[in-house]
Amino acid sequence: MKKKRKNGKERGGEEEEEKKKKKKKKNNNNNKNNVSNENNGRLNSSTTRKKKKISKTKKKERKKGKEEEEENEEEKEEETEEEKEESAYRRNGGN
């Protein structure tokens, strides 16, 4: 006895079997595209390569940003030291 759905129609008709076959075939194709290559250990799909490139570029940008921030901080420290020396020189009457 076939089970009925909530709307009263029976499950498992020919149309449904065709849909399942198409879906299974599509999944198999997707799995073939994502199989890892034994030689280099990378995924074959181009999307994963693009994602890896994007993440690498983001990492590089972060590193650059951190380096720039460090340089800016060092410059600020040098400027503040120079200002302190100048103000001390002025306080002492320019001697």
Automatic annotation (TrEMBL):
Bias (Acidic residues) ranges: 68-85
Chain spans, region Disordered: 1-95
Domain of life: Eukaryota
Biased segments, Basic residues type: 48-63
Biased composition (Low complexity): 28-42
Designated name of the protein: Uncharacterized protein
Annotated source species: Octopus vulgaris
